[in-house]
Amino acid sequence: MSFRRHRRDAQREAAQLDEPVREAGELARKLGLDPYPVNYWVVNYDEMNQLIAYGGFQERYPHWRWGMTYDRQRKSDQFGMGKAFEIVNNDDPANAFLQESNSLADQKAVITHVEAHSDFFKNNQWFRLFSDDGQFAAAAMLEQHAQAIERYVQNPDVSRDEVEKFIDAVLCLEDTIDQHRSIREAAADTDSRIPEDIRAQLDSLDISDDVRREVFDEEWLEGVEEAEREAAKLTKPRKDVLAYIREHGMRYDDETEKAEEMEPWQKDVLDMLREESYYFAAQKMTKVMNEGWAAYWESLMMGDEHFAGTDEFITYADHQARVLGSPGLNPYKLGKELWEYIENTTNRAAVADKLLRVKGITWRNFHDMVDFEEVQQLLRTDPAIDGIHADAVDDLADLSEDDPRVDHEVLDRALSGDDTLDLERYPWKLLTYEGLAERHYSLIKPQNRGFLRRIRRSELEQLSRYMFDDDQYDSIEEAVADVDKTTGWDRMREIRESHNDVTFLDAFLTEEFVRDNHYFAYEYSRSSQQFRVSSSEYEDVKKKLLFQFTNFGKPTIAVYDGNFDNRGELLLGHQYNGVILDKKQAKGVLERVYHLWGRPVNLMTIIKEFDDHEIEVARRRGREPTPVERAIRIRYDGDEFEEHDLDSDLEERIAASDIDYDTKPDDWL
């Protein structure tokens, strides 16, 4: 870990943060985190906004989107709609940027937040998809891309407008990749080439009419064409649309009015932007998990471990409340609450598992036989661990010499009078992972009192189903003494390794969580023409959330045919799951795709149509109108759009299952 002094006038701020950076890294590792090394940079207000515009990196390719994002962020800050405190990128080592105008409390919060993000980057499997061996240098990659595209922009033989137009077209498809596979695996999907017009090829050859009639008769030509058409058909939709266009796309030449081969610079730019899409995919797929993970450990370090000083805590608490209390679907709040719920349910199951092994206690009589107040008292942290401070070192020395909760090396240094140890500010140095897990055991926190009591009989029955040594303990006291208080954190780290937002919500967003945290679903009402609460039922809330995070919350589009109707046309399909496309936006994207394909492009989708009379009747009766679904194909030929009814066999191919969010790799979960 290192601290970079970015400018001369930031040296004072950087010097003040050297110690928090060092101590936050040590505390994070004591808590069981394993982050990449982090380089911290102090930047000013304008530099921070530029970094945000660039997605957390100092150099990106030339394009107008960065200026637009910069202006939006600057106005957001200026008008109090959101201030940027930090930005961190996924790299090895990671780079984090701190705004020099932030208070010390905010800087400490950012540093603890960043350490948790870096741990998530390093250990989550989805981030490893980008690099098979886990080794990569994202900043260097993006800088190389920026320089290469800048050279094309400056090349007098290449029009700058054409470069920007091409980038615009590719960016419309930047999320149409196969994000559940690595970029190399997705690229390995190869299809036979799209058949060329054999007759046109023969016309270009110097062949006599007699030879052509004799050797290349119509029957032979039709047979070859049919064979090539069959060989070129896609056996299944290609999710990596960018890769397919890279293989088969062309460009429409305004001068010749024909589809021509892409220029080498176009293929190069497409390759670079596709690579960047795969790099950023993991961050988009794990927004709730990642932000919730960082918010959880930041809160524990800043609040529970008093990393925020007494004079800093109010400022920190106020700013965290604003972050977690922002309206709408808040990934920080949802993620943090889910991680806390996982911790609590894991610890609850571990305690229940021990109690079910007490003689006389079964899943049927559990709530009658267990004195939950007694259990709560028995779970309380050992006072020697809970009350650690600089003047209580002797209490730890009285514990067993092999007590796993105590860092005996640090304890020996403290007892020998090592004045380099600041135990007044950092008493956690005296504890190990096991000691900190007991010190912060979730079930003894005031907000979680009663959580153990709420365990359902169905969960108890499941726990006891494969329990053979159910007479292991003679008393509740003996059973509770055997509870492993690291279980919750251990389970959290396991989950952090393998899930993405969709699988995370699918697995852990339960009816109990939705009820306790007061989540609900809302939708736009056609009858009242405003948004309204549609349901607070668990299944509806879960389904709504899962749809919002499937495919980054965007429509899933795939290639279904590269030679549609045997005319070299591209056929894309919207994998419909009940959520309709914005037709106006879809047409705008087709215009850009035409620029990449060079020939007519088609998009299959399903629309919902509402009858005006039905809407009025529904409004009077206080219900929602029932739409009629219709499958259509939108075609764009470079000049105008056409809309056709979709053939039934194609309609079946784009219809997704009722809930299309099962994206778990079978070999991971």
UniProtKB/TrEMBL annotation:
Cross-referenced InterPro entries: Spore_V_R, SpoVR-like_C, SpoVR_N
Pfam families: SpoVR, SpoVR_C
Superkingdom per UniProt: Archaea
Ranges where the SpoVR-like C-terminal domain occurs: 555-606
SpoVR protein-like N-terminal domain residues: 14-353, 479-553
Protein name: AbrB family transcriptional regulator
Species whose genome carries this gene: Haloferax mediterranei (strain ATCC 33500 / DSM 1411 / JCM 8866 / NBRC 14739 / NCIMB 2177 / R-4)
